[in-house]
Amino acid sequence: MNIPVSYSAEERFKSTPNTIVSAIDKTLISLSWEYHQTISGSFNGHIGMSFWSWGENFTITLAPDGTVQMKSVCSFPLTIVSWGKNKRNVSHFFATLNKTLTQ
User: Fold this and answer.
1) In this structure, which of 5, 68, 69, 79 has its CB flanked by the most CB atoms within 10 Å?
2) Domains in the chain, ordered, with CATH?
């Protein structure tokens, strides 16, 4: 059984880049994830420890065509199995981002 220690996905949105960046910002605030915006359309952050995880680091980038990519990676360097936590982070982010953009 091989459960990777990272997961990434992307979705394309039909909104202006400024609208998407604002929605990403609102999404991360609503999820209470620690983050900072490195350059326009790029975010780095950390999701804290929980009962199931030592925490995860994430990156989010926005391409000019409206494609948002998120990658979640286990923050503990000796992690062998993530038990799906990274995939849940990415899925939860995109579900919340979609909801934010449709409001």
Assistant:
1) 68
2) 6-102 (3.30.310.80)
